[in-house]
Amino acid sequence: MWLGFDIGGTKLAVVVGDEAGRIAARRRRAIGASGDPRTDVNAMLRDAHELLAEAGVAASALRGVGVAAPGPIDFARGVVESPPNLAGWDAVPIRAWLGEVFEAPVHLENDANAAALAEWRFGAGRGAQHLVYLTMSTGVGGGLVLDGRLYRGTGGAGEVGHMPVEWGRDSELCGCGRRGCLEAYVGGRRWTERLARITPAASRVAALAGAPAQARPEHVLAAAREGDGFARGELERWNRYLARGLVALSYVLAPEVFVLGTIATAAGEALCFEPLRRALAAAVWPSVARKSEIRGSGLGEDGPYYAALCAAFEASPPY
Amino acid sequence: MWLGFDIGGTKLAVVVGDEAGRIAARRRRAIGASGDPRTDVNAMLRDAHELLAEAGVAASALRGVGVAAPGPIDFARGVVESPPNLAGWDAVPIRAWLGEVFEAPVHLENDANAAALAEWRFGAGRGAQHLVYLTMSTGVGGGLVLDGRLYRGTGGAGEVGHMPVEWGRDSELCGCGRRGCLEAYVGGRRWTERLARITPAASRVAALAGAPAQARPEHVLAAAREGDGFARGELERWNRYLARGLVALSYVLAPEVFVLGTIATAAGEALCFEPLRRALAAAVWPSVARKSEIRGSGLGEDGPYYAALCAAFEASPPY
């Protein structure tokens, strides 16, 4: 059995499961980032021991322990560096801390990589040899499974949210401090900020949100489904920029499948995947484009459990 | 021993060598593309048998035979599809044809992939786990060695010349029929066409070339070394677009080393690699950029022999 943790900006998922993805016990709760990572990790460990007891698994019987956490991560040292969304977490040697508690090997993985592995082993990318995963939540994360294994490069590979999709002084500012990144156009935070700025007070988006300042991507999706012009225009822009990223990734990686999470999964076939497929068919050579599929996430709400489990598999591969 | 062929638009290289890259016999000559691929291949085979005799290697002692050829290639069937620079070559089943002659396994590789392998095994990328190779000759070819092996994706991976580096109606037309590709800005053919169009008659570039219409990238490099303003401006533009490609590739692949061939190798440190390093340092997160190096080709004129040999290693890996 494997033990996994998925540490998000606001939630912690803990899971005990096996190599087939059968989950013996799981728990998700708000992570009250206390500002003191040692306190947070001790709370995680209490959860873990309760779950192991619930599943009837002795800690000594674990084959691997995994942690999926927001980057940047120092893979070589097993250290969470200083994720913008985890207050007080700065250079946290979480692999060493868990190594003091568990006999099994411990692996620390970046959350988007773990999610890519989860989609590949248990989700929308099962059976693919070459998978590109993109998630468009707060920022844009990416993970690459190439030739049937996670590709990390020198550590930071798969940061597809920071590929440039626009150049010049007018290009949008990204959370990373640079301009023109894919994330600056399709990331949830930046899009939400833009919506607050430009949503017309009389629009359907504003009506669904309550006020322009409360407009969020989900209101755009709902209004677009009702045929609202402003929402359709916003979504068209969002798809256009996402397609720019996918075009570049197609030429570089020629993947079998793109798995697109969060906003794209919520938007679905008509509002997202079909327009993206048309854009790729127009911009990518047929010999490459016809071998690539675009799919939504196959794991939904359970994604973090499978991501945590896949991070644990990396500690001690079951296959 | 291995037998390799590198088929270029104008030249054919044939080599007999071993797993350490020791070359027992080699030959390069003009490939008189006869318009009939069967005739061209028979000429290649005569060369091969003469070289094998010269090296004292029996054809039956070969462990692998490789062919590096311009794409597009059908890897699964071992077919050269219809390279724009090989007249009359259309759906040539070269693997099957060589398989009728040699007992050893035959592998057909795209030329840029073979060159990437050659730089990785014997050239500027020795010892790297993650290498991105770009060559800027007529077009822009690319090859990816990731996690210590060639990455092909669904077949067309590494076509980095067709990553978009500019969007919009004004962006330059590429040889592939699309607009805004990296190749449209930094490929030798497109740059040469541009130089013929815009080189001032009174410039140093025109003087070196004889006339504006004869201006080529090598004249720009020579004039830039002499401090010519027009040449420096052209090179700055060329570096700026090449940097856009390398920035995107850095975020996606986080390679240890970029090996840049042809025009970049000829331009060298001061005119190319140093400006590129500055551009990457400004646009790529330090955590990624500081782990990547930029180098020129380490094989020079012998590149095609090593590329041919590496294509042969793919038929029957020595390692």
Strand content of chain A: 15-25%
Subunit organisation of the chains: homodimer
The CATH topology assignment of the largest domain in chain A is: Nucleotidyltransferase, domain 5
The biggest sheet of chain A amounts to: 5 strands, mixed
Strand elements of chain A, count:
12
Distance between the termini of chain A: 13 Å
Instruction: Please give the count of helices of chain A.
Output: 11
Principal-axes geometry of chain A comes out as globular
CATH architecture of the largest domain in chain A: 2-Layer Sandwich
Q: Could you spell the SSE succession of chain A in H and E letters?
A: EEEHEEEHEHEEEHHHHHEHHEH
Identify the biggest protein-protein contact and residues per side: A-B, 41 and 41 residues
- Give helix % range of chain A: 40-55%
Query: Can you tell me the CATH class of the largest domain in chain A?
Result: Alpha Beta
Order of strands across the main sheet of chain A = 3-2-1-4-7
- Structure class of chain A: alpha/beta
What is the H level of CATH, i.e. the homologous superfamily of the largest domain in chain A? ATPase, nucleotide binding domain
Q: What do the pLDDT scores of chain A average to?
A: 95
Give the radius of gyration of chain A: 20 Å
Whole-number tally of structural domains of chain A:
2
Quick summary:
The structure is a homodimer of 319-residue chains. Chain A is built from eleven helices and twelve strands.
